[in-house]
TrEMBL record:
This is Uncharacterized protein. The lineage of its organism: Bacteria, Pseudomonadati, Myxococcota, Myxococcia, Myxococcales. It comes from Corallococcus praedator.
Length: 90
């Protein structure tokens, strides 16, 4: 993965964690970076970042555990580095 892709992934991950910034959410693995998976793609200089919630990565949760159906957030990062969230609300 090239440097700009890493920066795009980090920016999207930080945006998700900022949205989750509530005292009750800081205590749980299911709302921590440990439960998130980041997928990055690129096209024409743009990076597209999908952040998936994977509670099966948390201790005590079985592989088949699902708290919601296909939770994800999608972001686009322009060639200038501007982060935009896709208007999808899980």
């Amino acid at each position: 993965m090239d440097g700009p892709a890493v920066v795009a992934a980090h920016a999207a991950l930080q945006a998700v964690l900022k949205r989750w910034d509530h005292p009750s959410m800081r205590q749980s693995c299911t709302t921590s970076p440990r439960s998130l998976e980041v997928i990055v793609g690129s096209q024409d200089g743009w990076y597209f970042v999908r952040v998936n919630r994977r509670v099966d990565k948390c201790p005590g949760y079985a592989n088949f555990t699902a708290l919601e159906f296909d939770w994800f957030e999608l972001y686009a990062v322009s060639p200038e580095g501007k982060l935009e969230r896709y208007p999808y609300f899980p």
